[in-house]
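FORM 7B - TANDEM STRUCTURE REPORT

SECTION 1: FIRST PROTEIN
SEQUENCE AND TOKENS:
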Amino acid sequence: MTTEQETWLTQEAYNRLEDELTERSGPRRAEITKRIEAAREEGDLKENGGYHAAKEEQGKNEARIRQLKHLLENARIGAPASAEDEVAPGKVVTVRFVDFGDEETFLLGSREEAAHASVEVYSPTSPLGSAVTGCRVGDTATYALANGKQMTVQIVTVAAYGG
């Protein structure tokens, strides 16, 4: 498994995703199928809004099921091994924007953590996440902004994520 494919998740996030997969592939799938069958029985499918809405929902549900299966197959529980003061997935990082003096604290983690995290979440593959991964407290890192300009941050603190 390559690093790009694996996603680090907390045990809680992994469990939530498993529960979502079970719900979507069981009860939700069956409920959507019933709605499609009921709409078919109404007759003309060309102008049947309920049928088309249910088919669209079915497509979205099946896409999310595939996404969840892939994510769970490639998930790693916990965080990769790293020094206590080293920026890595699963760590809460505070950076200072060198040019402005402002600080920002975020969890370096997956978007699946974002919905339930107590802090902002940045992906390890985002420009900022990529720049700071592997840095230690006191180090500086520079990354490119969307407008092409460069931004430099200094690592202020690094801590394990407590959920």
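SECTION 2: SECOND PROTEIN
SEQUENCE AND TOKENS:
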Amino acid sequence: MKIDPTRDLVIERHLKAPLARVWRCWTEPDLFRQWYAPAPFTLSAVEMELRPGGRFFMEMAGPDGQKMPNEGSFLLVEPQSKIVFTDLMTQDFSPVEKVSDDFGPAFTAVITFAPEGSGTLYRAVARHASAREAKINLDMGFEQGWGLQAGQLEALLARLETDA
């Protein structure tokens, strides 16, 4: 995939966990809920229908109790390889009337996973409709938030390793 540096924001990490475990953390709601929201936020609800057109819903809860629902749709699911989702559509590719302002500008996320040595190369690309929207998300703390998420994912993977 070609990256447009004006519209695409990228986070990449080498995770010290096997690909199958990383995939589980992205595709099992109970595990996803444990790492995806950047602390001190949490996910109070997660629904995943892992198929193109399937529902991808999450509700983030702020430390003050504020609830921020985010409705989306999976566009592509390639087991243990790639997940593409967007909040520009809902289940069965229905366009959204209005994207929630709580999450910043809408984007399409392309998440890829590849075995690398004894771990996994994890890459998240947020593709925006315009450079202006990408800049808004960047200024809202996208890199810090998604970087924090990646750290929380690493911590969960380490806990799962010790539980195995």
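SECTION 3: OBSERVATIONS ON SECOND PROTEIN
Residues 8-163 form a domain with the Alpha-D-Glucose-1,6-Bisphosphate; Chain A, domain 4 fold (CATH 3.30.530.20).
The chain has a mean pLDDT of 92.

SECTION 4: SIGNATURE
Preparer initials: ____
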